[in-house]
Amino acid sequence: MIDIQNRQGLVHKLKGLKSDSDPVWGRMTAQHMVEHLAFAVMSSNGALDQKLYFPKEKAEQIKRAVIYTDNELPMGFKAPMLGDTLPKLVCSDLGAALKKLYLALDEFELYFLNNPDAKPVNLAMGELDREEWTRFHNKHFSHHFKQFRLL
Fold first, then answer.
1. Could you tell me which residues come within 8 angstroms of residue 67 by beta carbon, excluding any fewer than 6 positions away?
2. Angle formed by the axes of helices 94-114 and 7-14, nearest 10°
3. Nearest-angstrom CA–CA distance, 33 and 39
4. Residue 126: beta bridge partners?
5. What element of type H or E holds 41?
6. 112-139, pLDDT tens digit by residue?
7. What SS3 state is found at 97?
8. For tag attachment on the chain, is the N or C end more exposed, with fewer CB atoms within 10 Å?
9. Global model pTM greater than 0.90
10. Count of alpha carbons within 13 angstroms of residue 35, beta-carbon side
């Protein structure tokens, strides 16, 4: 599993990603995947306030299944709040998207250093503390790294 706190290992794995890398499943391009991960990290570092998509009871159920088990995110899983079409790319190219992701990860560390009791909202699971966000990111990154044969 990916450990987002092992930045050297993370960067090493991402060096295997090319703009024309084909996914094992799904429609995301390599750049879409990196921008998707950056968005998730930005949602956890105080940069993007999110609102809970599901009722609280459903969110708690998802949180227990994702955060508090060793289960991987299933191959081909698509979060319902993401819609049926790929979002428009924000960055100029894959390199710029990777820089945005690395900056978001740096800001994640800094955010929780300065706000140790913060609990930013995850769209599907509600409020998560630093440890919960880290567990989620590790699973989420691993899921998408497998999608692009990086793991």
1. 125, 128, 132, 135, 136
2. 160
3. 10
4. 122
5. helix 30-44
6. 999 999 999 999 999 999 999 999 999 9
7. helix
8. N
9. yes
10. 18
Query: Count of alpha carbons within 13 Å of 100, Cβ hemisphere only?
Result: 22
Residues 91, 35: Cα–Cα separation, whole Å: 8
CA distance 78 to 144: 11
Scanning the structure block, which residue is given the tokens 């094992």?
24
Please name which of 88, 95, 125, 102 lies closest in space to residue 38, comparing C-alpha atoms. Answer: 102
Q: Which residues contact 109 (CB under 8 A, 6 or more apart)?
A: none
Look at the block and give the residue holding tokens 């609102």: 51
**Neighbouring-strand partners of residue 141:** none
Q: Which amino acid is at 52?
A: L
